[in-house]
From TrEMBL:
The keyword Protein biosynthesis does not apply. This is MFS transporter. One of its GO terms (molecular function) is transmembrane transporter activity. It comes from the Bacteria. It comes from Teichococcus rhizosphaerae. Keywords: Membrane, Transmembrane, Transmembrane helix. The chain crosses the membrane at residues 23-47, 59-80, 87-106, 112-128, 148-167, 173-197, 218-236, 256-277, 289-307, 313-337, 349-369, 375-395. The keyword Lipid metabolism does not apply. SUPFAM superfamilies: MFS general substrate transporter. Residues 215-403 form the Major facilitator superfamily (MFS) profile domain.
Length: 403
């Protein structure tokens, strides 16, 4: 028995090292896939504004991308359930590659419709990439799971730095076609992601349950509703303000470089806390972290409405990013408590369908609300949505204590 203990310890150490290595690879893949989206946020409304005859459609490309992200949820769940994580992530990377090339073609031709078509494969790829956090949770031990989720989401720190810098330094690379070179460079990122995936130890397809839990039963669970709606509010309210910020800054006289810098600060604030959010959840509890995120988002509204200088946009978007991180990582952690292991793919697909359906709606509504009602109403719309999320989380907390 004494001789087997060191061998068992070595086996546990190797398993732990392999788990952490896989989580870091998921971190890198998430960073690569997010870089395209962060760059797209800095560009799409400006390109849409220049190509569309109706300026209220400026955010339509981003809305279509988020709608495609929502539409990817159910097919991605089927692929992951039948073929495993690796096959699904490969399809996602190929979708992002095709999307960047189609965006480039639309810019080259000056064709708004063609540019919008690029949002479909790009959105499908981004939707599938949202499951990197779920894959990390599956390979992690229960104690390490919140840290694994937040760490993978922290991969966005690299994309937050790299994406806007890429936009600023490559926008005129193939002049007079503004942003054409940017999209051609972005097309290389999913190819790098494919190389990393070839080295990752990903979980196989889950065993098929003899009797699948009806999706209606999963959706009706209070714990699932609290997690999904909190995630939808976190992402939807953030997207509502973020998407129109470059437009508002343009109307205030700021150039592409200034708005790209604000989006960069926002994206860093979204993802950098991921290095510590998991620890904060372990120490203070997931519901307190969600509440802290809600307060930060309300502070964002106050700063955004207090002025329209560069500092106001910067601070407001940084608060918005930090609030999103606390609320969204918290919602993802709540989701892990709302389903059994054999239900995970169906629950995750349903969750992302709800979350990114909300994001798609807010991406399109952002441009229309900004054009018709203005910056003031756009920001005030965050308040009732955040109150709804807090109410659901508090109600679920009471239910959990009672149980």
């Amino acid at each position: 028995m004494a001789g087997t203990e060191p061998a068992a310890a070595r086996g546990d150490a190797r398993a732990d090292a392999e788990m952490r290595r896989t989580v870091w690879l998921m971190f890198a893949c998430q960073a690569l896939m997010n870089a395209s989206v962060v760059g797209q946020v800095a560009m799409s409304a400006l390109i849409g504004h220049s190509l569309a005859s109706d300026k209220a459609l400026a955010t339509l490309p981003m809305a279509l991308q988020m709608a495609s992200t929502m539409a990817a949820s159910i097919p991605a769940g089927l692929v992951f359930a039948r073929l495993g994580r690796r096959a699904g992530f490969v399809l996602g990377a190929l979708g992002a590659f095709l999307g960047s090339l189609t965006f480039a073609l639309g810019v080259w031709q000056g064709d708004f419709l063609l540019y919008c078509l690029g949002a479909i494969p790009a959105g499908l790829g981004f939707g599938i990439s949202q499951h990197y956090r779920f894959a990390a949770a599956e390979v992690a031990t229960p104690a390490y799971r919140p840290r694994a989720i937040s760490l993978v989401m922290a991969g966005g720190v690299l994309s937050a730095i790299f994406g806007p810098e890429l936009v600023k330094h490559s926008r005129d690379m193939l002049a007079p076609f503004l942003f054409l070179g940017t999209y051609l460079i972005l097309a290389l990122l999913p190819l790098a992601c494919l190389a990393l995936l070839s080295r990752a130890s990903l979980p196989p397809a889950p065993p098929c349950p003899k009797v699948a839990t009806p999706i209606g039963e999963i959706l009706a669970r209070p714990a699932f509703l609290a997690a999904a709606i909190t995630g939808a509010v976190a992402y939807g309210t953030m997207n509502l303000v973020m998407t129109s910020t470059p437009l508002e800054m343009m109307l205030c006289g700021f150039g592409v470089g200034a708005s790209a810098t604000v989006i960069q600060l926002h994206a860093v604030s979204m993802f950098a806390p991921g290095f510590v959010t998991g620890r904060l959840i372990a120490r203070f509890g997931v519901r307190r972290i969600i509440a802290a995120g809600a307060v930060l988002n309300l502070l964002c509204v106050g700063v955004a409405l207090s002025g329209r200088e560069f500092g106001h946009f910067s601070v407001a978007l940084m608060l918005l990013g930090l609030g999103w991180n606390f609320m969204f990582v918290g919602a993802t952690s709540l989701l892990a408590e709302a389903h059994r292991p054999e239900e995970r793919v169906r629950a995750q697909a349903a969750n992302d369908f709800i979350v990114f359906g909300t994001v798609a709606f807010t991406a399109f509504a952002s441009g229309a609300i900004h054009a018709q009602a203005g910056w003031l109403l756009l920001n005030l719309m965050l308040v009732p949505a955040i109150a709804l999320a807090l109410g659901l989380v508090a109600l679920q907390s009471r239910r959990a204590r009672a149980a």
